[in-house]
Specification:
Domain DUF4123: 25-147
Pfam family, one: DUF4123
InterPro entries: DUF4123
Structural class: alpha+beta
Shape: globular
């Protein structure tokens, strides 16, 4: 995709300039950008700092999230930043953060934001640098939790699924960090986060298996298609993620209306009634079609 056509680059380029005394950073989730090593190497001529307590070398390891300082980068590294936006357009991999904090300090407090305690006091690494997870999190936090979580930034934008930079901060902030790790999630917040993540987990399977019917769908249309499939699967009584993934995979291979075919219109009501597991239904369908 050329930068001329990239909505993400157009969105980044249209952001208002950072205020006086405030630095502008790009948070890069390079794990979502496979095969972009040469581009990352060019970008690392900008000031950079790895998260997760890693040293500078980790910024080129293909996995570790990192910050780029772009106080002057839009002007002096325009081509490389545009290429980054193009590569990341639908990857949910970029955030733009304005903060008065020095880069090393910002990397430290952002790393603290990966620390989460679930409702049963089980610790978890929260990969908020994946903006799909960030948006799901912000939707579930209380206003006070959200404001504290974003308090290291005067402004924070994140790339959404449509390749647009969306503001996350609710109002102008001074950028004084008020967050205290770990973030504690209630049981309801935890369940909502898991539920929100399920369509993405389904898409990951369809992508990794390179299902032709799924890959033929334009990027911005994939998520709504999968959300609809997951909803249909739930209407048939499916709740476990492997079952949701199998239902969507079957829909992509056999047709999205496969559940209306004679075999499945008989089996799925049995699944919904609890008389069959979905895995058992898959085996019975295979036997009937053999």
């Amino acid at each position: 995709m050329s930068s001329q056509d990239s909505p993400l680059w157009q969105s980044i380029d249209a952001l208002p300039p950072a205020a006086v005394g405030v630095h502008r950073y790009v948070l890069v989730n390079q794990g979502a950008l496979p095969g972009q090593g040469a581009l990352i190497a060019r970008l690392l001529t900008l000031p950079h700092q790895a998260l997760l307590g890693q040293d500078a070398d980790a910024c080129a390891d293909g996995v570790t999230p990192f910050l780029l300082g772009i106080d002057t980068g839009i002007a002096t590294h325009r081509e490389s930043l545009a290429a980054l936006a193009d590569a990341a357009c639908y990857a949910s991999a970029l955030s733009v953060i304005d903060s008065p904090m020095a880069m090393r300090d910002l990397a430290r407090v952002l790393t603290a934001r990966t620390e989460v305690l679930l409702s049963d006091d089980l610790p978890m690494l929260l990969r908020f640098f994946d903006t799909r997870i960030l948006f799901a999190l912000l939707d579930q936090l209380t206003d006070d939790q959200r404001d504290d979580y974003l308090s290291c930034a005067t402004h924070w934008w994140a790339a959404d699924r449509d390749g647009e930079m969306v503001p996350c901060t609710r109002f102008d902030s001074e950028g004084g960090d008020r967050f205290s790790a770990p973030l504690r999630l209630s049981a309801a917040q935890e369940v909502a986060m898991i539920t929100a993540s399920e369509p993405d987990a389904v898409m990951d399977v369809l992508t990794s298996r390179r299902v032709p019917g799924f890959l033929a769908i334009p990027f911005p249309e994939r998520y709504p298609v999968v959300v609809a499939l997951v909803q249909r699967a739930r209407e048939w009584g499916l709740r476990e993620l492997p079952d949701l993934q199998s239902f969507a995979l079957l829909a992509m291979l056999a047709g999205t209306a496969f559940d209306q075919l004679p075999t499945w219109s008989t089996l799925l009501p049995e699944v919904k009634a609890g008389n069959l597991t979905f895995n058992e239904a898959l085996h019975r369908a295979a036997e009937q079609e053999a």
